[in-house]
Amino acid sequence: MLASEPSTACILGLGYIGLPTAALMASRGWKVFGVDVNADVVKTVASGRAHIAEPDLDGLVQKMVLEGRLIPKTEPLPADVFIITVPTPITEGNAPDVSFVDAAARSIAPHLRTGNMVILESTSPVGTTARISEYLANMRTDLSFPTRAGLAADIKVAYCPERVLPGRILGELHHNDRSIGGVSSACTEKAIAFYKTFVRGECIRTTAPTAELVKLSENAFRDVNIAFANELSLICARLGIDVWEVIALANRHPRVKILQPGPGVGGHCIAVDPWFIVHSAPDIAPLIRTARQVNDAKTEYVYQNARALLQSNQEQSLACLGLAFKANVNDLRESPALEVTEKLAENFGARIVVVEPNISELPKSLKTLGVRLVSFREAINLCKILLLLVDHDQFRRISANELEGKIVFDTRGIWRNLIVSKQ
Ligand code: SAJ
Predict the structure, then answer these.
(1) pLDDT tens per residue across span 271-315
(2) Which of 81, 112, 185, 301 is least buried, going by the fewest C-beta atoms within 10 A?
(3) Where are the alpha helices (DSSP H) in 109-207?
(4) Which residues have C-beta within 8 Å of that of residue 14, sequence separation ≥ 6?
(5) Distance between CA 170 and CA 56 in Å, rounded?
(6) Domains and CATH numbers, the chain
(7) Can you tell me the distance from the alpha carbon of 384 to that of 407, in angstroms, rounded to the nearest whole number?
(8) Active site residues
(9) Which of 88, 214, 222, 388 to mutate to test the pocket of ligand 1 (most atoms within 8 A of CB)?
(10) 69: CB partners within 8 A, 6+ apart
(11) Full-prediction pTM beyond 0.90?
């Protein structure tokens, strides 16, 4: 860190982005107050552990807490830089819910001093950064903010989205390029100097609304492309063609890169963020909206087909292989695998067993329906029907012999060379 740089930061929200960012900044010389409204999270971090499973995070958190550089708190404290990394979910009607961002802004308002910077990292609808600047200006009339005072404002406000991939968060936080948009150009410059203290990727100047839309566009782009693959998988199933072979061969074209079909799209980002764009311009976003619907419909398709297999094999059990939203993570949020499993369990109860190597306990919703969590080997011994929902590495370690005599529904195509799979 440069000697002239400010040295204390306060990060609001110790989740998938906040905690790794706090630990990484602490390791680059910052004194970081890590704030979370959940006292259990604060307690876990204070004991030197990460409450989320992410490679290398536990060790780094432990080291930074022990060295006194990462200080977990339930309330914000005065700092040079405030970074908001709280969740921005969607409502039942697919509208953005920015109430956690507003609450975080409210909580830092009393601590702001001239020279401070507020950075929003949460994925947010276009206009949120300027709105937060106004929100703070109304709470702190003794200070000036860039939406009203421009370059000379006492407080600088900027937007800088994260774009890290769960499973590779620490490395990507350090190496990914960042789009950084201030409410004024002075805010942008100050935010760039800040990120350069711990990011090795390029820090690129833009405006706050552009940076907000860049983040949403990245995830909507991926969602639309996965929807294409999922739609293709339905077409191939009807025509009796192996979709994975079609994609592999089409991708030999130098300008074609089709993504992979699956049981739908999960996680807290790609299944959510496109709705922020649709919400901001509903009459002119039919493609983005339809992609969401296509991906959600794929989950229903998988459920209906698995249900039919159970109905036509009355005496048999079915193993749901994987609950996580994607391969090799323990995150079950917005997981299509979990959704399919819950619906099957509601209808078939104890005929369903689950294998999820990344968790030690089933979610309550499944436990109460009589579903058991078993090992991969046990599931193969117990069940005639195997429903592959997540492409965890462990599920790749199986031989053609072990699949013999099984009814296999492989939604990820990882066993396509072992059997004639059904997508
Ligand atoms: N999926 C498919 N087919 C594919 C690729 C993914 O069905 O070909 C599914 C996955 O199984 C999963 C979902 O899509 O259910 C999302 O997985 P992902 O690995 O594509 O993305 P996330 O949600 O883990 O992280 C994304 C990333 N965004 C992009 O790649 C554009 C990440 O860089 C962002 O930082 C993150 O969202 C975020 O926080 O917004």
Answers:
(1) 999 999 999 999 999 999 999 999 999 999 999 999 999 999 999
(2) 185
(3) 128-139, 146-149, 169-175, 185-195
(4) 22, 34, 35, 36, 41, 42, 45, 51, 72
(5) 8
(6) 8-201 (3.40.50.720), 222-422 (3.40.50.720)
(7) 6
(8) 215, 269
(9) 222
(10) 26, 27, 29, 30, 31, 32
(11) yes
* Calpha distance 117→146 (Å, rounded): 11
Nearest to 14 by CA among 171, 121, 99: 121
What does the block give as tokens for 270? Answer: 């790609």
Q: Nearest C-alpha to atom 38 of ligand 1 is from which residue?
A: 269
Interval 102-114: pLDDT, tens: 999 999 999 999 9
Contact status, residue 20 vs residue 170, Cβ threshold 8 Å: yes
Q: Which of 326, 330, 388 to mutate to test the pocket of ligand 1 (most atoms within 8 A of CB)?
A: 326
Ligand 1 atom index nearest CA of 259: 8
Do 176 and 143 form a contact (C-beta atoms < 8 A)? no
Task: Determine the distance from the C-alpha atom of residue 90 to the mean position of all C-alpha atoms in its chain, rounded to a whole number.
Answer: 13
The pair of three-digit structure tokens given for residue 297, joined into one six-digit string: 């419909």
- How far, in whole angstroms, is CA 125 from its chain's centroid? 16
**Most distant CA atoms of the chain, gap in Å:** 75
Residue 42, beta-bridge partner list? none
